[in-house]
Design a protein that fits this description.
Strands 1-2-7-8-9-11-10 form a 7-stranded mixed β-sheet, with helices on both faces. The protein has a two-stranded antiparallel ribbon with strand order 3-6. It has 8 helices and 11 strands. The mean pLDDT is about 95. It folds into 2 domains: about 1-170, Aminopeptidase (3-Layer(aba) Sandwich); about 170-248, no CATH class. Strand 10 and strand 11 form a beta hairpin. The protein is of the alpha+beta class. The chain binds coenzyme A. The site of coenzyme A has 17 residues, from strand 8, helix 5 and helix 8.
């Protein structure tokens, strides 16, 4: 039996998770488009297919719940900004976590994605229990950010992680640091991507966003990532913070 995919919640029910299908060209293409929009890791799709097939990565689309009020308007804004995402894709994944799964074959337009990764070496490095699962590759369409959808996806994925086969007790993740994201240069870049000017006082860094959800910093790496500006091709070294949260 494949792992559960839905966690009931009266509060965090505005999105649903649908497994990404590593054998679908349409799913690969849509993920590529969303990674380009996210500006990170668009070159890792083939690597992720292998990890998902091996059961070392659990990858989910995030879709708006069918009965969400205003769903059509939200999707219209998303498609207006990202026209290559206008076609619905089909729920076709026949496995999840190495277990057979019956796809629903329903169509949907994903508004983002989120993954759980297994990193036993990192667990050892950071003295985390081997029952630690890492959140990776979280992205919500820029037309819907700050709408509560990322928070719901986090709630759902944390609860899925506690279910078999993962039986996680701890979540961990890495993200760029608050210091980096609150620099004027980053705020200007973020404003340009979002298409609206974001003042420092209104800005919420990823690090703060995760801390608000109960994550605590366990380590930092001043040379965490090398990011390539998609417009200029210039490489930049970005500091990262590692955070963890006990979930049981
Ligand atoms: C980071 C990201 C996933 C967050 O998703 P989101 O849908 O924008 O976030 P949400 O709207 O669900 O966040 C809601 C929570 O943040 C709070 N929040 C939202 N905007 C805020 C702001 N400007 N200032 C302070 N808090 C804010 C809300 O109050 C809410 O908190 P609560 O649940 O405790 O009440 C999303 O912005 C994104 O995809 N960013 C680009 C990719 C990225 O950086 N991914 C993370 C890589 S590690």
């Amino acid at each position: 039996m494949s792992p559960p995919e839905t966690i009931p919640s009266s509060k965090y029910n505005n999105v649903e998770l649908v497994p990404w299908d590593p054998d679908s060209d349409a799913h690969a293409q849509r993920l590529y488009e969303q990674r380009v929009a996210c500006t990170w890791d668009q070159d890792l799709i083939d690597e992720w297919k292998v990890k998902v097939r091996e059961g070392n990565k659990f990858f989910y689309w995030i879709k708006l719940s069918d009965d969400l009020a205003g769903k059509d308007e939200l999707l219209a804004k998303h498609i207006a900004k990202y026209p290559t995402e206008k076609e619905a894709i089909v729920d076709t994944a026949t496995t999840l976590a190495n277990s057979p799964r019956t796809p629903t074959l329903t169509t949907f337009i994903p508004i983002g994605h989120i993954a759980l990764d297994l990193y036993p070496d990192r667990n050892t490095k950071f003295s985390l229990p081997q029952s630690t699962v890492w959140i990776k590759s979280l992205y919500i369409s820029r037309t819907m950010q700050s709408g509560g959808f990322g928070r719901s996806a986090m709630y759902q994925i944390e609860h899925l992680a506690t279910c078999p086969p993962l039986n996680a007790t701890t979540m961990a993740l890495d993200t760029s640091t608050k210091e980096y994201q609150t620099r004027p240069e980053y705020l200007a870049y973020h404003s340009a991507l979002s298409g609206r000017k974001i003042e420092a006082k209104d800005f919420r860094s990823n690090e703060e966003w995760y801390v608000r959800q109960g994550y605590q910093a366990i380590a930092r790496n001043e040379r965490g990532y090398t990011w390539v500006d998609p417009k200029t091709g210039v490489e930049e070294v970005i500091p990262c913070v590692f955070l963890k949260k006990d979930i049981v």
